Amino acid sequence: MQKGKCHSLKKRGWTKTKHKPSLIKLQAFMKSRITILLIFIAFLNPAFATISTILDFSKDNLNARLAVQERAVIKSLQAEYDNLLSTRICLLKYEGVKRSFGQELALRPSDCALPLFAEDASGQTGYTTYPNKRHTDFNAIGDLGYVEIFYNSDGENIGDAAIYFRTDEQFTPLQSTNDYDKRVSWEMAKFDAVKQWLDQHLPKIKDLGTIEVTNTPFNSISRGGGNRIDLGDGKICVIQIQPLNYSLEFLKLVPQAITNDYFSANLYLDSANSSGKLKDLGGRVSPKSMGFVVDGQFYRMVLKHKQSSPEPAPGR
Questions:
Q1: How many alpha carbons lie under 13 Å from residue 240 in its C-beta half-sphere?
Q2: Within 13 Å, how many C-alpha atoms sit on residue 315's CB side?
């Protein structure tokens, strides 16, 4: 399952960046991310790894940023931000980014501020194809801000992304929690403007609403099983759902996992008259919804997990 912000349990590991935090900041950062690191280890396959890059939050004091992360406004904005990245921006490919945002910038801009509700690091898969075309670009969001895009090793698909707001005379660096009210008011106005710009320039999205999904028995998809959504024009989205089995150690760290809120979701494309191999749609999962693309059409849906298993489709 790929999760949030093109997130797949992100922020884990280090890579060289232009802006290196001090040792004190690095220690504080590591301490704040220890739970996420442990969760990642629980899932880690020895054959894979992730590449994490510390984002540029140099305009703010790290301790002050960490101190406001649990505030209700920040958590609400963070969920909206993750959903925007996962179901819109990270579904684009390199050419789609150029069509939506224009050509990448020649130089990294200096007038950018990382939102308080954005994560302080970005993570993407360490899986590498050759030749390795992995690269990072900055693109302008009109005159409102910038998007930093981390491309996977194929140079086409996006591994992760981050939005920055363009600073102006009203911008307030967060040096202490006393700066919070001014900063968050400024960010909310900027975020609203950025969302409007993105709605105008990104591909239109079809919202499928809330889809109830049930566990998919092994090999049932080949017999017409799975959770099936008719997309029209003979196209069918098949959703494979598998519950995740956790160790007692993991459940101690994340007790909410026992409520069955955590599951693996895979998407495939089928057709009404096909019994051949299904196409893997990939897709992106955020805490609120899942996005995918079929023949240039963007889709979004919310998955509601139930325990029972779907029966194979008649005649398959």
A1: 20
A2: 4
SS3 (DSSP) at 246: coil
**Contact assessment for residue 181 and residue 116, using Cβ atoms and an 8 Å cutoff:** no
Q: What is the DSSP letter of 296?
A: T
CA–CA gap between residue 282 and residue 1 (Å, rounded): 9
Mean pLDDT of 23-30: 41
Identity of the residue numbered 273: N
Helix 34-43 vs helix 23-32: crossing angle, to nearest 10? 60
Q: Are 208 and 299 in contact (CB under 8 A)?
A: yes
List the strands of the sheet with 112-113, edge to edge. Answer: 112-113, 158-166, 145-151, 136-141
Longest dimension (CA), the chain: 66
pLDDT tens per residue across span 267-280 = 889 876 655 578 88
Q: Where are the alpha helices (DSSP H) in the chain?
A: 23-32, 34-43, 62-67, 72-87, 94-101, 180-201, 248-253
Mean pLDDT of the chain: 79
Mean pLDDT across the stretch 261-265?
68
Cβ neighbourhood burial of 82 (10 Å; 0-12, 13-18, 19+): buried
Which residue in this structure is represented by tokens 């093109």? 6
27: Cβ contacts below 8 Å, ≥ 6 apart:
none
* Whether 161 contacts 194, CB under 8 Å: no
Pairwise CA distance, residues 289 & 258, whole Å? 20
Question: Is residue 264 predicted with pLDDT exceeding 90?
Answer: no
Q: Which residue in the block uniquely carries the two structure tokens 């089995």?
A: 245
Rounded to whole angstroms, the Cα distance separating 113 from 3 reads 24
Ordered by start, the domain boundaries in the chain are: 23-201, 205-306
